[in-house]
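--- STAGE predict ---
source: upstream dedup step, 1 unique chain passed
mode: sequence only
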Amino acid sequence: MGFLDTLRQVMGNESSKPARAFASRVEEEGATALVADGEEVPYDKAQWLKKLKRILDELPESEKEWETLEFDAKARSFEPEWITQNLRNEFLLLVRRVVADQVVTEAEHLKLDLARRLIRMPETEAVDALRAIVTEAESFFGKPVQDA
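--- STAGE serialize ---
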């Protein structure tokens, strides 16, 4: 089953788990993105993270900027582990922003799949993350996330 098929299947799932503050988790995770081990991220990395977030938010129109973003990270000698972790973190935040309004449109389905492919996240990892986030959102809101 492909990522988009799983996304559509999960959207129809009405499971619930113990409630957690879904909306506040989005804000907390976004606010801490510029902090690593209790220290502020250097300016170059902070700017790169802002550009990454913008590019992911503006997909698919911003896809043409992806290669430049990757080149910029390599040119600045950012650690590969740091890059990978932040790509995954921003993908998870993107998924949270998409499901926060409790309706996922076809355009958002495509955006998430494109983002997953760009960051080279394995489909199984993305599906697991998606299921966890949707379950958390449904628990928080008390109703299923709709597939538009």
